[in-house]
Sequence to fold (263 residues):
Amino acid sequence: MADTVLFNVTDGIALLTLNRPEKLNALSYELIEGLLALLDLIEVDDTVQAVILTGAGERAFSAGGDIHEFSRSVARGANAAVRDFVRRGQRLTARLEAFPKPVIAAVNGLAYGGGCEITEAVHLAIASERARFAKPEIKLAMPPTFGGTQRLPRLADRKRALELLLTGDEFSASQALELGLVNKVVPHDELIASARALALRITRHSPLAVASVITAVTRGLNMTIGEGLLNESEQFARMVPSHDLAEGLLAWKERREARYTGR
Fold:
């Protein structure tokens, strides 16, 4: 785990770096399991309030699944391929999407296949001007398997998503911005600093409120408007007895900065 994903924390922000630069940070089974294990640790660590996810090296965020490893699973049949590859990858993207602390992708290079699907799943994303994206699974005679057929149409709309899914064509960081896949495109040398600045703009707020917003939005995307409004109401009700809501209201009345405790 220590080899495939690097981990450090500064000022309450965890930086997770996919660390297989010689393989364009391809998502091996070991890397996925390591990333999931680190997310488990971060979730229960009250000193960490946000996560930045990036790739090692100058070429790639992640070029997608490890094809050599995946091919061996395919050779063992559908059950093995679904168990080893599909479920593992979908577990990762679902975990990122529903993670209670904000996850920001800092896309530093190629984000193909599973790398693009991670970008789709995380809460926020900033791309280097050098970043390139693609949904190349069609070139292998398969659909995306980590959620790409579901999340990209929700972000970009059905027709634009289908064009990318059915052609496998590469698209630029500026196109990713226009599609709603990333929030911002920045000069390459400013990528991590920009991601950190965004994280700090979020972590100044109550971590309980941040988690409630993430939960309301993530769950609400798959609900009717009526169900989503009920979900929103439930998230608010969870905040009512909290110290943070009382402190936020009192700080507003006293015209001072709030001192949140996450309780």
The two ends are 32 Å apart (CA to CA). Residues 17 and 145 are 22 Å apart (CA to CA). The domain at 207-254 is CATH 1.10.12 (Lyase 2-enoyl-coa Hydratase; Chain  A, domain 2). Strands lie at 5-10, 13-18, 50-55, 60-62, 103-107, 110-112, 124-128, 132-134, 171-172, 184-186.
